[in-house]
Design a protein that fits this description.
By secondary structure, the protein is mostly helical. It has three helices and two strands. It folds into two domains: about 40 residues, no CATH class; about 70 residues. The chain is about 65% helix and about 10% strand. The two termini are about 40 Å apart.
């Protein structure tokens, strides 16, 4: 006697994964592997916060390093402040870039659902 498989498979042999609307209605379907890959590309708010903290820590370390260097003379202090300003601008640019990237991912995810 032939028994039915407990796991659904597509003709291709992959496990299907349904994309559901808030009401529970199935809107689309793709493979579990593809769904997992899409999910892994998205960043959570905690990951964004962690990345922002990491950039902020790098900037602070650089600032401390430049302040230590700049203690000997006023000219070195001015150079250090300029370097700090540049590194802060770079950090802000990196955070803005990350936020734009996240916004694109969220928009793409909203459009695919």
């Amino acid at each position: 006697m032939v028994t039915r498989r407990s796991t659904m498979k597509s003709r291709k042999g992959t496990k299907p994964s349904a994309v559901r609307a808030g009401s529970g209605r199935v809107e689309g379907a793709h493979s579990v592997k593809g769904a997992h890959a899409l999910e892994m590309h998205h960043m959570s708010a905690a990951q964004v916060g962690a990345r922002f903290d990491e950039v902020e820590n790098r900037v602070m370390r650089a600032a401390r390093r430049f302040v230590k260097v700049g203690r000997s003379s006023m000219e070195e202090a001015l150079i250090a402040t300029e370097a700090i300003r540049l590194s802060m601008n770079e950090a802000v640019r990196a955070v803005r870039h990350a936020m734009r990237k996240i916004a694109k991912q969220v928009t793409a995810a909203a459009q695919s659902v």
